[in-house]
Specification:
This protein is mainly beta. It is built from two helices and 36 strands. This is MALR1 protein.
């Protein structure tokens, strides 16, 4: 069937009507192939007319010429219990030729489930009127899967919400960036978001959507909070929902579970990117030994065609919890050092060993040598070796974040910063610019430290630094592994900060390939300084930088032996002993440079 437009009439309209259909099943889909080509070929749309509803529903649209080609359209009809009719409307504008055509119209999976004589088993449900046998997990999911509504009878309204009368017992999170919006029909922006809800399949029904247009920015988040639920074992509690992620700039939808009220919880599920113009069902099986809550989070992409929709959210096998979740303090102590020190006679320039009360010189604190029997002089220092396993930072910290209060930390979500990561938590496509495996274990479960470039803007920097290191030895060096792969990698620097003076020791910029690369930086003898890893963000999110297995090698300062040096050792001017093999090797092994003196 085709339309040839060759007259000069400014506005021409053509209608192609279907026969009237009585009803459809819950999985009904309409597909057809269309051709819309020409300089003024104009728009085309498919509309749904349901008996008893005055308002029609737009199911599909084509706004302009789409080239000299046949294209496939897939329309999700779903469960339509009333008689309906479809209309393909074509509007042509202007004074140029254009051709529109349609072919191969197909209805799939539109029949109701067939009746059966037997429906047995704990996982099956026998529909009362149609006698169909369906999966019991489809019961009370706000979808008429039986065709007679019997699978939606006697359901607890507190465990389901189709948003026809508000948010039910779901709530908007007050700690996110903006709220989900309840709406009917299409979202305001073309080529993104749903055209209709999932419950009724028409423009009359309501659903929630996340608006991605300005003033909302990339990585802004909207979070929806479920009611609280009692503990559930072995996945007995089932969460069902339908989501819609259509648009070139759709970013991410994720679901979290938490048992503490002022945390974001742990990730249960996520979906990333454009999933097509359709509602998709998702089922999650939830286990918890404590009362819990579900969080549904939508994240804005880098443009206005990134709307996300939610509808028909229900729970099966779950019971509501009549209480509140506990909270956890947002402030933590920097060290585990006791508040009171043991009795001692130490001066202000000395460090008090926590267990014994022994006094040592302050220069012996954080020097990579344990001088106290309990090692308390090295407890609040950077560790000699750090592989970031068990999610430990090993004493490394971020000054920019340390200066924030507990409430400020909540709003650092979009800040360009260092954070722990692993391949198992990457979203699809992120492995193109972030390591899929760590260096320590070479697995997706291994942890590493990385700067996520999907946060921040071009030129932003993030520092992670050691506490002050009192003194190092002449051979001290730092060895680490770095991963810098991506089309817009910025740079990674190793800096030395002494007081207000900062010097650059090592730098690398641009993509270095899809592997971990070893780096070695000589430190030598230094005192009262900090080592800083500084990463600079590139022009886009395709530029994460990661480090792993940071090692301070041979960094403890020289130790006075308190004895005469042997015949195989050289006696430094400061009375330290070093092997004679280290003489005149261009390294200040003695710490006073006497091993490099021309008079030796």
């Amino acid at each position: 069937m085709f339309i040839l437009k060759n007259s000069s009439s400014i506005s021409q309209v053509a209608w192609l009507r279907s026969p009237k259909f009585r009803q459809t099943g819950s999985n009904c889909t309409l597909t057809f192939w269309y051709y819309n080509y020409g300089q003024s070929v104009g728009a085309a749309e498919m509309q749904l007319f349901v008996d008893g509803l005055k308002q029609s529903t737009v199911l599909w649209r084509s706004y302009y010429s789409e080239g000299n080609q046949w294209l496939k359209a897939v329309i999700q009809l779903g469960r339509l219990p009333r008689p309906f009719q479809l209309s393909l409307d074509k509007i042509s504008l202007g004074f140029y030729d254009g051709v529109s055509a349609i072919d191969d119209i197909t209805f799939e999976y539109c029949a109701l489930p067939p009746p059966t004589l037997i429906c047995e088993g704990p996982d099956r449900f026998w529909c009362r009127g149609t006698k169909a046998c369906i999966d019991s997990f489809l019961v009370c999911d706000l979808v008429d899967n039986c065709g007679d509504g019997s699978d939606e009878d006697n359901c607890n309204p507190d465990l389901q919400c189709n948003f026809e009368n508000g948010l039910c017992n779901w709530e908007q999170d007050v700690e996110d960036d903006f709220d989900w919006i309840r709406v009917q029909g299409p979202t305001p922006t073309l080529n993104t978001g749903p055209l209709k809800d999932h419950t009724t399949g028409t423009a009359r029904g309501h659903y929630l959507y996340m608006e991605s247009s300005k003033p909302h920015q990339f990585q802004d988040k909207a979070v929806l909070l479920s009611p609280l639920f009692n503990p559930s074992s072995k996945g007995a509690c089932i969460f069902r929902f339908h989501y819609h992620m259509f648009g070139k700039q759709v970013y991410k939808l994720s679901v979290f579970q938490r048992t503490v009220s002022n945390t974001k919880g742990w990730l249960l599920w996520y979906k990333f990117g454009n999933q097509g113009n359709r509602w998709i069902r998702q089922t999650l099986y939830i286990s918890s030994s404590k009362p819990f809550q579900i969080l549904v989070k939508g994240t804005v992409g880098d443009g206005f065609t990134g709307d996300i929709g939610l509808d028909d959210m229900s729970f099966l096998g779950c019971t509501l919890y009549n209480g509140n979740l506990p909270t956890v303090s947002t402030t933590t102590s920097a060290t585990s050092v006791p508040a009171t020190l043991p009795l001692n006679n130490c001066t202000e320039g000395e460090f008090v060993c926590r267990a014994s009360g022994r006094c040592i010189h302050m220069m012996q604190k954080c020097d990579f040598r344990a001088d106290c029997s309990d090692k308390s002089d090295e407890s609040a220092c950077v560790m000699e070796v750090c592989d970031f396993e068990d999610k430990k930072h090993c004493g490394w910290y971020q000054p920019a974040l340390e200066h924030m209060s507990g409430n400020d930390v909540i709003h650092t979500t979009n800040t360009f910063k260092w954070e722990l990561g692993r391949g198992a938590d990457l979203y699809p496509g992120q492995e193109k610019h972030c390591p899929l495996i760590d260096h320590t274990k070479c697995t997706e479960e291994g942890w590493y430290l990385f700067a996520d470039s999907s946060n921040g803007e071009f030129g932003h920097t993030a520092d992670i630094t050691t506490p002050v290191i009192s003194l190092t030895g002449p051979k001290c060096k730092i060895i680490f592994w770095n991963y810098m792969k991506g089309s817009t990698i910025g740079s990674l620097e190793v800096l030395c900060r002494t007081g207000n003076k900062t010097s650059k020791l090592w730098t690398q910029s641009g993509s270095q390939g899809p592997q971990w690369n070893r780096a070695e930086v000589f430190l030598g003898i230094r005192s009262n300084f900090q080592v800083v890893f500084r990463v600079k963000r590139g022009v886009s999110y395709m530029g994460d930088v990661a480090v792993d297995d940071i090692t301070f090698k041979d960094c403890s300062p020289l130790l006075n032996p308190g004895r005469p040096c042997t015949s195989e050792e050289f006696t430094c001017t400061n009375k330290y002993c070093i092997p004679k093999d280290n003489l005149c090797d261009f390294v200040n092994d003695c710490a006073d440079n006497s091993d490099e003196s021309p008079t030796i």
